[in-house]
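Morning!

This is the sequence you dropped in the shared folder:
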Amino acid sequence: MKNFFTAILAFGLLLQTAAFAQNKQIPYGHNDSVGKFYNVRGIRMYTEVYGNGRPLLMIHGNGGSMQAFGNNIPYFAQKYKVIAVDSRAQGRTKDNRDSLSFEMMADDFDALLNAMHIDSAYVLGWSDGGINALVLAMRHPDKVIKLAATGANLWPDSTGLMPSYWKAEQRDYANWQKRMPLKDAATKNTYKIFMLDWLQPNIPLLALRTIKAPSLIIGGDHDLIPVHHTVDIYRNIPNAFLWIVPNSGHPTLMEHRDEFNRIVDDFFTQPFKRHGY
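The structure's back. Tokens below.
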């Protein structure tokens, strides 16, 4: 997801710059006054905590960091204990192993909450973070109170991703193979993160039916994830709401910040009832 995702992150950074200006320029992801590392499953996982209240774990997308939530942390920190985290091998969380999987990362988040003495949390995930939210809810159901996942896919092909996007990933994969063998650690890590989305996830629709937590499944109407795929995710989770965001691409949480924050917050705070959302 390199070329497209790089453009998305660049757009997000512009929005985050404005958010920082409005929030005393808090350097999310590099705020050493609150940042802390936890020893989790053989890595040192970097976190920043903001606010008080019920815990809310925020999980970013592929190759990103907690900075992706620069438009969301200030809002949610007013009533939640926001746990912003850099996933394994990304941001300030280093990992020199040669493999990476969504199951591995879900187990990381479970272990992180244990290390923080948190029994369960609300979970908000974007893109790969949305996949992580789903996998966490499947592997560690007691850890998830409710989840909101935006821009998640279940498998890496032209039905789980827009065909044009899938073709771009095929070109990126071919270009990576021309560079082999990779030598320096940073390049190897970038390749490992790319390969995560090239080969994964591989989640059968029926597996979603094991998710116990009420779930808000979100996608943009012009997302990198086809709308029908997002709808299939929603339909296979027993207690789920669906929100297809009009006039939105992949970064729903940035392009529609205020509405996104309000609707996700309402979903977290209101009792779950089966109806259209």
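Headline: The chain is about 40% helix and 20% strand.

More detail when I'm at my desk.
O.
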